[in-house]
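User: DUF4855 domain-containing protein, Alicyclobacillus mali:
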Amino acid sequence: MFTLAFSFRGAIARGASAAITAVFASQVQLHAQTVPSGAPQDLTGMGQVSVSVDGVPDPVFAAEEARYPGDITSLSTWRGFSHQGKRVITLTLPKSADIVSISVRALQDFPLGIYFPRYVEFQFESNGKWYSAGREASAYPLSTRNVMAQTFTWSSPSGLEASAVRIIVPVDVWVFLDGFDVKGFLNVKGAPVSALTPVATNPDKPLGPLLPTAPNAYGIRNMLLVETGANGSLGTWSEQDFVPMLAYVTESGQITAPLFDTMLFLPYGSVPTTQAGLSAYLQDLFAPDKQLSALNEAVGYVNQALHRPGYKERVVLSLPYFAYGQASFGTIGGSTVNFGGSPGDPDALSSRESAETWYVQQLLDAWNRAGFSNLQLVGLYWNEEQFRDTMPGEAAYVQFASQLAAAHHLPLFWIPFYGAAGIADWKSLGFSAAWIQPNFVEQGSQAYLERMVNAAQTASQYGMGVEVELTGISQQDQALYDSSLAQLSAYGFGTNQASHVYYDGSKLLLTSARSTGQARVAYDTTASFIAGVGIRGGS
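Assistant: Predicted structure for DUF4855 domain-containing protein:
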């Protein structure tokens, strides 16, 4: 699970207020009226201010932000918000008023992981209905390294008549706010809010899990992560290694039923994302008698055992993530490529795109040359577990990768960790499908079942699949594993209810399949879950 080591920084320079977007002006035709004379009143202290989560509440993130409980209406203390979707900050007034301005200040402290919200949306309530005056985007990129503040503001000289106002603030990692302020007139009639855009009563209706039969699942029901390219025998897969992953093998050696229908090949984290490092990874990936070649042979063997001629195992291959700031990649077309940024390419976007294009060409050329008779390439995987909107040029870079995959008629898949930035936006970022990591089992003795519930709710909210995670095969590890599987089934993410990807550390399921007694339970349990057998777990 992503956590933040946080220490508060003292005095912050006050930022300048950015101009409100043109959305309000284009949507609202104010009724002619006399602009009130005199200074507007401070309405904030006259009503009730409340803060709520518009997302999936999480007790760990809630405990983190409880350490920074500053007064949201004061300019002397910051209030911190950690993950969990959006925050809705509402001011309910004792009676209807003419609202002429709303403002809130946000902090950016990049080294501490505190970022400006991407936008602030302003909404007004009248006669029980809410209306939106649009969003003001951050005037500064989230990659800004300076410690600074900016004020998000909506204003109108003649104002709007409302009995409550609220702001919607997305919280991807940490957002710190203060100075929430609403001004207006209690004894002046403002223009009606009905000219604004009505807020949908249920704008975030859950999409439901990513079904295995959904077109964007591309037939993926149970996909195993296969890490190669480093770590000796742990990163080297033989034909014999793949057989018990393709089909269930009894302790007596009998092959009885299909197991994983898709293999996702990705490099170990220690594989350098340089031209030399990736070239070595690809050479290893397509080498004879191991990795992809071994899988191809294993599929042929299992097909004979299961009497399923012509079956092809689905394969997903990885695209590397090239981080902004990496000093040197290599040479493409005689030119040195690095990702540190330059006057002509300040976000290193062109350099990263060139490197990605080079890699995809190398990858697909090797795949086409191999001519695997028992394998089917069904997609590419974005090998970065979060959307780093805080990095320069990130959105354009991810979009380019998506378009690059599409140019080769392949979807781009994503598996973000729990609480990662960008989860709610996976479709707009350009991914064809996404699976969420619950990061439950890896917490060990600190694991709490509510995390599994929250992960399932998040996946259901945004139309995602779920990752099944195994980090050990001891009795204690098995208890957590059983709990996670039981929760998935209980919340509609069992077999045939959702598409799954499986993370098993370094060949843990293979180790379990070749073991007896307690160590074999993880393999048998996984096969049972895939077969649709109910799993009992702790509470």
